[in-house]
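Open question from group meeting: does this chain pack into something compact, or does most of it stay loose? Before anyone orders reagents, we agreed to write out a predicted structure and look at it together. Recording both the input and the output here so the notebook holds the full record.
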Amino acid sequence: METVRVHWSDHALGRMRLRAIEPLWVERVLADPELVEVDPDYPGRLRAFGRVPERDDRVLRVVYEPLQDGAEALIVTALLDRGRTRDWRKTR
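Structure tokens returned:
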């Protein structure tokens, strides 16, 4: 994905503070995801996944809504995905 202008929801910012997730990590995963999938609960949203070296290569899930034909994104939430981390470590 090319450089995308990021907008932050209040929910995302609050959750990121609670989970000690840096905005830079979210932007990095959004710019160069290892995997992108449609959110099964909200088809207008996407999930981008990527490893975070600063957090022992845990997998960060960034849920976002693409805006302006993909040139912008509204970050809905971000979390370290335990299940995905576990699955990806099995494939190493």
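Observations to bring back to the group:
The helical segments are 10-19, 23-31, 82-90.
The CA atoms of residues 59 and 84 lie 6 Å apart.
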